[in-house]
Amino acid sequence: LNSTSIFCSPIYFLIHVAQDTPLVLQSDRNVTVNARNHMGQLTGQLTVGADAVEAQCKRFEVRASEGGKVLFSADEDEIVIGADRLKVTGTEGAVFGHSVETPHIRAEPSQDLKLESPTRSLVMEAPRGVQVNAAAGELKATCRKELHLQSTEGEV
């Protein structure tokens, strides 16, 4: 049964369901929700399909249910992850196409932390210095060719 309803002016409605009963919208293909401005122009769209959930809008946000803190937001210029911790669980780790800036990188307890650039060099830069500290173990530097330690204004 195919059924389409067209309304000539905006329609507003509330859907009430019994407490602890989910509201189910079901379709053979997908469910799409459109938002329009006062001139009728499409300003946002959310489509839930069998293979994907797509949102088309100027800004997309995911908020915590408690307190409303923004956990994830995306717009044309940036993506912000607002959780206290970002955990990447894939066996291949995380791959970044460009630079990464963070105040803290650490491995899970009892796991090694590995920063690797398999085909090029690895560069760590900071205007006030880079510190490598092995508080409870040894510090080892290994390379295939030459190992250079250089200070442009001080001692090594």
UniProtKB/TrEMBL annotation:
Stated family: Belongs to the sarcoglycan beta/delta/gamma/zeta family.
One annotated Gene Ontology cellular component of this protein: sarcoglycan complex
Species lineage: Eukaryota, Metazoa, Chordata, Craniata, Vertebrata
Record-linked InterPro entries: Sarcoglycan, Sarcoglycan_gamma/delta/zeta
A matching Pfam family: Sarcoglycan_1
The entry's keywords: Cell membrane, Cytoplasm, Cytoskeleton, Disulfide bond, Glycoprotein, Membrane, Signal-anchor, Transmembrane, Transmembrane helix
UniProt KW Membrane keyword: yes
Species: Pterocles burchelli
Name listed for the protein in its UniProt record: SGCZ protein
UniProt topology in membrane: Single-pass type II membrane protein
Location(s) in or outside the cell: Cell membrane, Sarcolemma; Cytoplasm, Cytoskeleton
Transmembrane segments: none
The keyword Cell membrane is assigned to this record: yes
Gene label: Sgcz
